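Re-run with default settings, no changes from the original entry. Doing this only to confirm the output is reproducible before filing.
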Amino acid sequence: MKNNRHDPEIITSLQNPRVKEVTALQSSSSLRREKGLFVVEGIREVERCLESGFRLRSVFYCPSVCRHIPSCDSFRRSHVPTPSEGVRVFEVSEAVYGKMAYRGGTEGILAVVYGNAGDRSLEALDRVLSDDTSAPLIVVVESVEKPGNLGAMLRTADASGVSAVLVCDPHTDLYNPNLIRASLGGVFTRNIAVCSSEEAIAWLKARSISILTAQLQDSELYYDTDMTRPTALVFGTEADGLTDIWRRAADAHIRIPMLGRIDSLNVSASMAVLCYEALRQRHEQPQR
């Protein structure tokens, strides 16, 4: 129902087609690809999405949730467009919001976003990195399976100032709702390319970026390895590690010492250790 042409449409039924579309987009990567749409929840996440140039198709907000969030009103005034701007705005009941939201605690704001703003190719990455005169620090993730792990890695990439992330042969898409949430919007703030491992290796070799693979076998301790030069840190899955193509392509194999009975860290924790070691080295030593 609508109050007048200036007010948002109010949705209270769980059977509303728009509610069904949002829940389907949340759960289906194939539908996200087919429609070129994805869902973003939360004030910070939507803000970072907009700052990265993505366009909103629709916004849903829940007044009964928003009133408990001090920043919600200012967010709505600053970022929620009017219908005249081509974006549909909906006010939803708490039950409807609970149905649509992938996870709780997302501040009563949810947006459906067009997915065509993000060029995730290596060619696009070249254009972005061409202005970077310092030695780039690249993170490579091979065949990541868990969206939460990749999201946590993108959050670390943002925090540690990584130049770019290459997501190779992924088993999840970048707009999985759990990934977006786990990254706190880092999927929008970092330079990311999606490609095959073969394409990534050729790209890194062509740019004389040293490939360091994180692995236990035939490796040296990470803090004995120079990371001040142009460097790519490569991580595999927790279950299977890296494939042979990366082991063969590596300029060095590095490891984090394991002093207990468990022989590996969560991949996002391993990435944090190595990224901050690279950051430490680059702050303490002149870059080569």
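The chain has 13 helices and twelve strands. Residues 1-5 have pLDDT under 50 and may be disordered.
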